[in-house]
C-alpha cells in the first residue's frame, strides 16, 4: 500500500463516508475552492491505479467505490508513523504523549479497559 497525497486522501474521505459516488458527488463534498471535474477525474484514475478505488459505468458516467477500507489505511498510516517517529514502539509513542501531558495515565487506562476485548 502507498501513502496518499493530501488531495487523494481528501477524495478518499468522501468515498469512505458516502459510499459509491459519482465525480459530481465528490466535488459537492469538497471544500471551496471546488476543483474542476477533470481534476477530480485525474485523481480518481490515480487512486484506481494505486488500488484504492474501482469504478462501474452507468451510462456515460462512472461510479467509484472503495477497495481499501478506511480502517485498513489508518492502520497502515499509524504503523508508518510509529516506525518513523517512535522507533517502531507503540510504548514510546504513548510514553511521549503521557510525558507531554497530551494523554493522562487515567485516560490511557480507561481506553485500555474499554478496547481490551475488541477485535481490530
Give a concise summary.
The protein has 120 residues and is mainly alpha-helical. The chain contains 6 helices and 3 strands, in the order H-E-H-H-E-E-H-H-H.
Task: Walk me through this protein's architecture.
The protein is mainly alpha-helical. The protein has 2 domains: 6-66, Arc Repressor Mutant, subunit A (Orthogonal Bundle), CATH 1.10.10.10; 87-120, no CATH class. 58% of the residues lie in helices and 12% in strands. It has a 3-stranded antiparallel β-sheet. The chain is elongated.
CATH superfamily membership of the largest domain: Winged helix-like DNA-binding domain superfamily/Winged helix DNA-binding domain
Query: Structural class from helices and strands?
Result: mainly alpha
**Element order: H for helix, E for strand:** HEHHEEHHH
Radius of gyration: 18 Å
Query: Which CATH class of the largest domain is shown?
Result: Mainly Alpha
How would the global form be characterised? elongated
In this structure, how is the largest beta sheet organized? 3 strands, antiparallel
Number of strand segments: 3
CATH topology assignment of the largest domain: Arc Repressor Mutant, subunit A
- In the CATH hierarchy, the architecture of the largest domain is Orthogonal Bundle
Counted by DSSP, the helix tally is: 6
Beta fraction of the residues?
Answer: 5-15%
Q: Write down the domain tally.
A: 2
Q: What is the rounded distance between the termini?
A: 19 Å
Helix content: 55-70%
Which consecutive residue ranges, at least 5 long each, have pLDDT under 50? Answer: none
- Biggest sheet, strands in spatial order? 1-3-2
Mean pLDDT: 93
GO biological process, one term: negative regulation of DNA-templated transcription
Family: Belongs to the BlaI transcriptional regulatory family.
Keywords: DNA-binding, Transcription, Transcription regulation
GO molecular function, one term: DNA binding
